[in-house]
Specification:
Elements lengths: L2 E10 L2 E11 L4 E5 L6 H8 L7 E6 L2 E2 L4 H5 L2 E4 L11 H11 L5 H9 L15 H14 L4 E5 L7 H16 L3 E5 L11 E3 L8 H4 L6 H6 L1
Parallel strand pairs: 3-8, 3-9, 6-7, 7-8
Antiparallel strand pairs: 1-2, 1-4, 4-5
Bound molecules: adenosine-5'-triphosphate (ATP).
């Protein structure tokens, strides 16, 4: 199964964040998603996760179109966002058990995922008492609880120590070896070796946004 991004566009708060975006990712490939702060990396991942609507274009996973069948597209995607989405009121293992239940997957995967991320020994602890790195590992452990061909990872190594960052790279490699795909927004080198890169660029021409009827970014305007 391939990922094909075709002429994709997204508008937020009335402003075009990106447009005319084309990219292709083949089965077994992991791509780095790069670009300066605010260029739209997280936005793209959230569009592909079906969390915010596209303003145009489409993305396809095999024969499933995001524009035509968002639900089916989402069922092929696992998204790990900036925030860990860990429920602090639940225990560490409970967090993953709820996730497994939501996706009707084998609860037996929970213990294996916790062990793999080195947090099996705190399975019974309240998630609220986890360190930032432990919370991040718990959030990422959800990737192993459900089977999705496309992983969308937004700065997955934030708060992680060197060993855990290396583990993320190892898991991505394993996922790809099984035919999976990953699109990873990262400002650091993950150690995945040479692979496809999706580089996002801010508009080159100062008047470009206005030409397309988009409001200018007030923060950038002030900075310039
Ligand atoms: N909730 C929101 N509502 C409206 N606009 C938003 C929202 N979140 C982000 N934006 C805008 O969308 C644009 C892209 O933001 P995004 O977070 O996708 O960038 P990014 O490339 O991931 O940045 P970073 O490298 O800093 O994480 C920015 O101009 C930002 O101001």
């Amino acid at each position: 199964m391939d990922l094909e991004i075709d002429n994709l566009a997204c508008r937020r708060a009335g402003r075009m964040v990106f447009r005319d975006l084309d990219f292709r990712l083949g089965a077994g490939e992991a791509a780095a998603l790069r670009g300066p702060n605010g260029v739209g990396k997280s936005t793209l991942l959230r569009v592909l996760a079906g969390l915010i609507p596209a303003a145009g274009g489409d993305a396809r996973l095999g024969d499933i179109s995001l524009a035509r069948d968002r639900g089916a597209f989402q069922e092929r995607v696992a998204y790990a966002g900036h925030l860990d989405a860990v429920k602090p009121a639940l225990g560490v293992a409970e967090n993953l058990a709820v996730w497994a239940g939501l996706h009707a997957t084998d609860a037996g995967r929970v213990a294996a995922a916790l062990e793999r991320f080195g947090i099996g020994h705190i399975a019974g602890h309240p998630a609220a008492q986890c360190s930032a790195g432990q919370k991040r590992r718990l959030g990422l452990a959800r990737l192993l609880v459900i089977d999705r061909p496309l992983w969308l990872l937004d700065e997955p190594t934030v708060s992680l120590d060197a060993a855990s960052s290396a583990l993320v790279a190892e898991l991505v490699r394993e996922h790809c070896a099984k035919g999976g795909m990953a699109l990873i927004a990262t400002h650091i080198e993950l150690g995945l070796g040479a692979g496809p890169v999706l580089e996002m660029h801010p508009p080159q021409v100062a008047g470009q946004a206005a030409e397309h009827g988009d409001a200018a970014d007030p923060f950038l305007e002030g900075a310039w």
